[in-house]
Amino acid sequence: MADRTDRTMIEFYGGLGVIGGSKIMISTPNARVLLDMGLDIPDGLDLFREPVRRRCGGELADYLNTGQAPELPGIYDPAQLPVQGPRADRSEALAVGDPRPTAIFLSHPHIDHDGMLGFVRAELSCHAHPETVELHRALAISGLGPVGRPVTLQPTPPGTAITVGDIVVEPIEVDHDVPGACGFLISTPDGRIGYTGDFNLHRNGGRRTSAFAERIRGVDALITETTLLSFDPLPAEPITEDEVLTVIGDRLAGPQLQLISAYERDVERAQAIIDLARQRGRTMIWPGQQATFLGLLGVRDVVTWDDSRRQRKAHQIAVANAIAAGTQPTTVGLAEVWDRPSDFLVQTDSADLPSLLDLPISVGTGWLHSQGEPLGPFMSTWQPFMDWLEHLGVEVVPAGSSGHAGPQALIEMVKQIAPGTVYPIHGFRPETAAHLLGAPQTEARTIVPAAGIRYPLR
Ligand SMILES: [Zn+2]
């Protein structure tokens, strides 16, 4: 019989003091469940930032050798572990599979949650919402998917309880800014754990999130994202999608060409912007990869460039793949855009700044920033992008809203769930988050998790 202290354990392999990189292992002596497999976002210097190019096929080895991936036992594909380099001596131990049944559960398809799925051992099942599975298929065809081996996901509808040894995992939908977002209720022999994934209460009235909170009410431990507690001062509660569309709509009323960077994985907002542009007499034009991705997911009125605008190779390949998959994207040529600039809204390609020179940019052209790349000043691609916009006289217009819960919404959630213990992760300031989410605001005990520590559920 196992000792009480080595029964259900929680270990954190990412998301500590950083936004993203979530990887949480729940284990008993009989089973293991890994929640998310996000790409690590270094809290210090990111050695792989632009203009560094990752080495195709050797990404996991390079991440492990630089300490930018954690040593997850029995999870990695042995074929991708380093054979030389500073950490190669660890590969033998990492290559050994764990005898316990092990499964991975993906909360939602954002790179800081799914970016390392291509590094996983082939025999491990990875469960995801059916919409996430569809989205991953579209990512793969568009050349936008995770690196590593092709990802195979097990479609697992919300509400379906999956048994892994003596652990039961139930995915429950939450509101976020990508299709198929889920949190999880994990039942173990020692008690119940709730994991939020990423969530908010301001999209679609927060109905899914509220139902999730109700379903996991009273869990022994709650692992929650704390993205919007990362900043000092704390940000205001995020604006609603209607308010985002009002900002965009105002800008589309003008007589000039308008530019935008929206995040294509926010499929709902992408459709809303396309529809809004059409109502204002404009056609929204996407780069080939994004057009292919959105078209495969059934988004209406997706338009991309014809051959008159030279796009990067990746876009050309994606469009060819779309045609091979039986979807013929609608195209627009540069001449039409030069003839009638005010009839168009153009999604920018942050990896191809000189392509801005193709466009009829004039005084009054704005760049609507709506969660697309470059994401913000923390990205090395941000400043060059800003320099180009300034050079061309393009005004930057904030036109987005976070997919994460605002500070008040987070506190409300914890109150509603009333967990025994809260583990704040996925934020820059976990100590502040713990302070804000614990007593006296709520009745929960808080633990700021650290790497390399196994936390007993009891
Ligand atoms: Zn997310």
UniProtKB/TrEMBL annotation:
GO terms for molecular function: exonuclease activity; RNA binding. Residues 20-251 form the Metallo-beta-lactamase domain. Pfam families: Lactamase_B_2. Keywords: Exonuclease, Hydrolase, Nuclease, RNA-binding. This is Ribonuclease J. The keyword Nuclease applies. Gene3D superfamilies: Metallo-hydrolase/oxidoreductase (3.40.50.10710), Ribonuclease Z/Hydroxyacylglutathione hydrolase-like (3.60.15.10). InterPro entries: Metallo-B-lactamas, RibonucZ/Hydroxyglut_hydro, RNase_J_2. It comes from the Bacteria.
